[in-house]
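Provenance and format

Records in this collection were gathered into a single text stream. Each protein contributes a sequence line and a token line. The two records reproduced below are adjacent in the stream.
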Amino acid sequence: MAAKPDLTRLTTTMYRDGDAPGAQRLAEELLRSHPRSLEARAILGQALAAQLKHDEARTQLLKALKQAPKNPQVLCLLGELAMNTGSYRDAIGYFEKAGKHQPDLVPAIAGKAETYLRMGKPEQARRVLERQRIEPRDPRHVPLCKPLITALLRLGEADAAAALAEDMMPLDPSLPLEHRRAILFARGKALLDANRIDDAFEAFREANDTVAGRWAAQRDDQSALQQRLIDTLDRTALDSMPRADLDASNVVLIVGLPRCGSTLTEQVIDAHPSAHGVGESPAMPALVQSMQDRFGLSAPWPNCHEALSADQLTDLGRRYLDAVTDGVGPDRIVVDKQLGNFMNLGLAQSMLPGVRVIHCLRHPMDLGLSTWTNKFPPDQCIWSDSLEDIADAWHRYVALMRHWETNCSLPLLTVRYEDLVQDLEGHARTILDFCGLTWDDRCLRFWESKRTVLTLSQDQVRQPIYTTASGRHEAWGAHLAPLRNALGDAVSDYERA
């Protein structure tokens, strides 16, 4: 796909700066004047996918494929989208078609290997990659090195993975930002698995430093929003709001911060034959964002809480239920683990009467370490780039959850990760009872489920319960002093609770 000046600018915006919304706007602008531009439509599809607008991205990429059915780049983009949405067979098909048209196409080879990794087949991923003559210092081979490092780690070959990662250093500064981040995080994991904690810490610090300062631009707005929720929605305000005319007692919201054990909790419930996990549904955050325009309100949520009518709340509730129950059989418990819904519990109380909430908690030091050592998609969990920012996010999140616990009347169950892994059956019984489900032994064998998991925890939930993630922070010693100091009393408060 030949690049034009505007498209070069688009590519720079998306890959160098990580500004997917900016890339989307520029692509749409170009398509208005050049509606047949295959390049602009392909980049628009990428930009939408980067913002998790999967259906819109698929529409644009299928339009591009219709224009050029044999274009290997478009086929690869569709393969990547299919992989990231759990359609692994489709992903393999797209990557193989791309490879037929261009056998040495690196994105097709890397995509196929990454898909096998997502499927829990590291040996097949390694076979795909080892057919290539990978040169670690060749920038063109970076997309191949990252899945090979991961495959080696999954196969227990940490020293080989670390050696490959070290052979790639220093990285070519011209590499796209997300490629650099991916390799640096993979390097950190390899060094950690090779028991080189000091080196791993420096690798993770370098990975996070590539995007350092992102949270500073959003911290004040986010802090102000959370404070408005606390100041505006006290018990009197929440109790005076009308209720939607519907029954949402079959819906369970799982909330918390990333890496809190929510995927394990969801998998335990989803293993029950009368339950269905929908993953991280974007439905509620989208409804909150669109509420003001949808109803012509004078202010956004939560300032508009007094203006909302029962009919409007019913409309919101029905739209949400339609989104999360689509394709789910009748009489099943639906579990939505959109963790960010901890911001929306005040609204959920009125728009989803009967909804239940499971609050997943984890030791703040372990949670902080886990978020800091994992690469999240662009624009997600950006406070995890800094140990101090992680502590800031923890403090504000805990303050808001305490506010909801005091002022909301929602049924709420707190599940601590450390307790769950120590006594799976005991806490699983409590969780199922809270959800209105009878006991089923299959919930103790959640890893046998063939269900696709799209979060960073996908590997953990394919194996029986383990306790090694509890207290993991202790091995890092003084390296984590910035996190511990910034958390302050939160550590002792959690340990005493």
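Adjacent record:
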Amino acid sequence: MTAKARILIADDEPHIRRILQFLLEEEGFEVHMAEDGEEAWKAVASFQPDLVLLDVMMPRMDGFAVLEIIRAGFETARLPVILLTAKGEEQDKVKGLAGGANDFIVKPFNHEELLLRVSNLLEATRREREANPLTGLPGNRAIDREIQNRIDHDQEFGFMYIDMDRFKSFNDKYGYSRGDRAISFLAGVLVGITQKYGSGREFVGHVGGDDFVVVANSKDTERLAHRIIREFDEGKTDLHDDEDFKNGYLEIESRNGQVERFPLISLTLAMVCDCRGRFGHPAELSDTLVELKRYGKTKPHSVVVQERRSADNKPEMVAIIVNRETPDDATGDPTS
């Protein structure tokens, strides 16, 4: 359950307000109460709640009017609202949902159901706010929270950072619409591979632009990484014009009128297969991945770069060029 979220209760019945206040404060929420509709819409601005429990029938201004004000405001348009309706008032439910309510609860209400609806709506709203608008995948805050949670619980996990190489030249050649298509394609590859070949505990996040992360079980990380590279390289044919793909490069005119050639887009996938016990914060893991990614981007083709330990326990960077024939447990030549 989401703790310390702010919830506004707007209901003209004192005993309903008291019950709701008790239930929600017991769960760790911060609660503010309003006795009528006019108090309610003013409290939305002053209290800045994360969710509103809004009774339909109230004096001075009913719940529908308050909901209309909430949805009309730029900063409150997406504020989650649960309507409280009297039993049997089906027309209120329909009118409320049509007016933009996220959910409704019928009075008298079941306490457990109410808490679940509040918690689920808050969680759904949080995920929506944190998601990348292009791919719908979790963004940076969710990524850091996922990593920190696995660190805090001493879980074994592997981490992959996936970056599309020469994406800028691709955008310059084909435009931002094709660039978005390439990003969406990569997101689909990551989600599809983890769902098809993973254990069910994978996490796929979108850092931004053409950068993604995947968190997986340690034993699955390398195998999934190779499949991701193969799937992307096999599918990127459709992202380029036929002539460009046949040539193996993009020709782009620079600002001074000179034509320059750039290799086709590819992936650098930097990974650490066993993160357990090594890192105390997501930033420490990120620092390790930066060096691996920098080394991988010196390669002209899609590559998996990982950190391994040599016979004398020194860290080494291993680059693997992945193709259709590369086995999932392939090893590469170390470069320290």
